[in-house]
Amino acid sequence: MDVFMEDFLVQPTLETARFLMDVGVAGLEKRVFHPTAEPGCDGDDIRACSICLEDYEDGVEVVVTPCPGRHEFHHRCIANWLRRSNTCPLCRHAL
Ligand SMILES: [Zn+2]
Ligand SMILES: [Zn+2]
Hints:
Blueprint: H1 3-9, H2 14-25, E1 29-32, E2 61-64, E3 72-74, H3 75-82
Antiparallel strand pairs: 1-2, 2-3
Helix pairs in contact: 2-3
Pfam family, one: zf-RING_2
Domain RING-type: 49-92
Protein name: RING-type domain-containing protein
């Protein structure tokens, strides 16, 4: 039971959320973001989540969407997004 799951426990639509989370996010690639390990200085790296617009913190878990741009979002943010949509929030590619 991690922090991500606990977020859903306080919501009335737990069962729906859990179901969609499983089908929407479980199959997606995840990784841990480390700013110091990212390729540097080419300027176009996306270092912030495009859903909540917050910069990634060191060690945060991000989900890599299987779209051509391989966009990345907070695990929690993309899970919430996929409750309403099955497209990439950035490029609208079907996931
Ligand atoms: Zn986010
Ligand atoms: Zn995308």
